[in-house]
Specification:
single chain, mainly alpha
Amino acid sequence: MQIIKPVSQQSKLPSATSVAPTLAQRFEKPVAPSEEEKIVKKSERLFSLDFLRGLDIFFLTVVTVILYVVNDNYGLPRLFMDQLGHPDWVGFTAYDMIMPLFIFMCGAALPLALPKYLESDGRASLSYWWKVLKRVAMLWFLGLIAQGELFSFDLHRISFFNNTLQTIAVGYLITAIVARIPSTAVQVVIPFLLAGGYTAFLHLCGDMTPTGNAAVVYEVKLLELFYPHVSWHPVKQIVEWHYTWWTTVPMFGVMGLAGYHATKILLHQKWSKTKKANVQLFVGLALVGLGFALMTFDPCIKHIFTASFTSFAMGVSFILYSMCYTLFDIGNHRLGMSGIILFGRNSLLAYMLAETCFRTLLEVVPNAVLPGLRRFLTDGQHAVLFVLLQSASLVLALYVWDWYKRGKSAAAKAAKEAAKENR
């Protein structure tokens, strides 16, 4: 007599998808845990990483915007306001830190975000490169929207590479490639080789003036291959503003790799948290010292990211990272930091809303509220209240988006757990 087993005991035939996964599944599905992923899983989420990223974008999208309006209407000390803009050529200000810190933090997130896409033997899987290339493409496209004038639909005006998001994409790509080199020593040496080669290029192929430096001269020559006239907007930007992008690519890689190594220090398994913070601090102070030493022959110029500027900026980034790690991840002093963390978790959305054509969305509330109050306000009061309501709208938008993401993540987690129970 044939005994029929209960359904729960019957052997299950593999589904079509488990036998022949789709191409998308092959790219997207994380592979078996690698040693790097096991190390990352043992480490708690770095509060300092979210905080420092949030502080950077909050300073750019809220603090500086409000202070500019206050200064325009009421006046602030010039020494103070000088720190909220870029120097004409040589020099260093607090505002100069925004872009390098963005690239640094993107590199710093890579050791935490990508190891789950590695093969069990540590080699990069298809899903690893798919993740990297998707991220690069997204950042590049958003950069075209932000400052590349993509929506002008005018080839005379569209700039393919002239935005912070695109420099982050370049730094991210270079860092992701170098991170797959097995030798840690080689990984450490590469940023110094990139910086050294770029510095030699600057000093051997031009001077250090705004119009005669090699970065600007050769960038214009490169762009003229694609834009036939100097009056075309992308070329005109370089000639008038003296900022370079294509020729400065090596230094974007240097900044991304600096952040990568900063987080690798925090993932060291044999060091205490205090020692990790101290090592970060020591490296930061050493880079600041190196920056000052380089300034004796290599001017500190943000426009073309000279080695002295980059070394100094990365030194400050290491020091800030160490301070945040000590305060938040070791000391656990996190009370009242939720607002900055909100910006840190949603930094890309904050940037796109506050720094691009989408900024008009943040003007809906002030344009609806202020007309009726206009007769009670002076021009200065109206301008300040407008920008405050604009900033409040940005915070509200980030909060709603963050709430949506958390809800979606919780639902996905619950569905995953329910699926496990039903097996």
